[in-house]
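I'm curious: can you give me some protein's one-letter sequence along with its backbone structure tokens because I've never seen that pairing?
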Amino acid sequence: MSGAPTTHDPSCRTVATARAPHGNGVFSLAALVRPWGVYRPQGDSQLLREALERAAMPAGARVLDVCTGTGLIAVTAARLGASDVWAVDTSHRAVIAARCNAWLHRLRVHVLRGDFRDRPAGHRFDMVTANPPYVPCPDGTARSPGPERTVDAGPDGRLYLDDLCAVAPELLAENGSLLVVQSALSRPDLTLQQLGRAGLKVSVVARRTQPFGPVLSSRAPWLEERGLIAPGQRTEELIVVRADRVPRPWR
């Protein structure tokens, strides 16, 4: 697209700015720039997006989207009225994609390369969203190159989820909320336990069952062998967990 930022364009290395193209504020997933190696928005992305739209963020909310990929959720937050939106991803290509997509939709999003610990000093957020890698994989493959790198998360699928649960209280402002999407294969019960032990009020706010995609289909025998799925199972349940930082009562 003429005028859009590229990897060589200085505008793609700064904050991208710009507005949703339709009068009702809705944009299509097809309108997103996605270089090779960047996670393609799928059913989990849509489930998280819907949960965010229902979350009733306060006007002018401060939002952090971690593992942003194409920036879909960050762009959605900006479209919903968040005034200070930050997005982070460890992938250089994802950072470029998120900046370009914010620019294309004329929405202001600050995009940084890093993980959930990499944020402006002292910043806490009214809303944190996350679609981290959560697919169980054999040892040694979680950090391998290729498309699987965007979904693989160790033998139990919790390589990134456990770290996110540990740091979540530091990210949230008072009355702030975390929305994280994951598969039932990666133990959402542990996510609820870890966030609850950290003093957050936890709940499951969305569920959806979908057929296995190519990665899980190719890995089905290994998942069956580990007891992560029943013999012949070829569907997974996606879950969005919400965790709220509620004020502690005075004593």
Observations:
- The chain has one domain: 29-244.
